[in-house]
Amino acid sequence: MSDPQTTRLGIPVYTPIQLVISGSTSAVIDLDFSDPGGFVVGRSDSKSSYTPDIDLSAHRALENGVSRRHAALIQYQDMLHLLDLNSVNGTQINGERLSAELPYLICPNDQILLGSLALTIEVRR
Question: How far apart are CA 34 and CA 37, in angstroms?
């Protein structure tokens, strides 16, 4: 049996993508990986001065169990990956719970759960 992480067709770095947030506060966040590095995804709140690169607090992140520093979208081996940052409520890709601190390949139309907040990764056209 082959490893699903090696047989999936990922998204090359420098490909503009969109995070499509599902739910009562649907939104689209455009992302550009033209610079090396990545984006921390999470939520800000009044108890902390920390603000993540992608702040989901306006999308009911607290109510959906999103941590302040929940996950990171990173460049790894020339492809885009998602990394759970030891979040309390976990991160999933297409129903598979991610192990913390390990990069997982992201593919177009992947369904991501941060806690219970649903996101879709789309390639921007």
Answer: 9
List the chain domain ranges.
4-123
Give residue 2's pLDDT. Answer: 41
Identify the pLDDT of residue 24.
64
Q: In the chain, which ranges are continuous DSSP H helix?
A: 4-7
- Are 68 and 85 in contact by the 8 Å Cβ rule? The answer is no
The 8-class DSSP code of residue 42 comes to E
Beta bridge partners of 101: none
Pick the CATH number of 4-123 from 2.60.40.1180, 2.60.200.20, 2.60.40.420, 3.30.300.30: 2.60.200.20
Taking the chain (125 residues) in consecutive chunks of 10 residues, what is each chunk's mean pLDDT? 60 90 83 83 92 94 96 93 97 98 96 97 87
Radius of gyration over every alpha carbon of the chain, rounded to an integer in angstroms: 14
* 8 Å CB contact between 82 and 100: no
Contacts of 59 (CB under 8 A, 6+ apart): 21, 23, 25, 27, 117
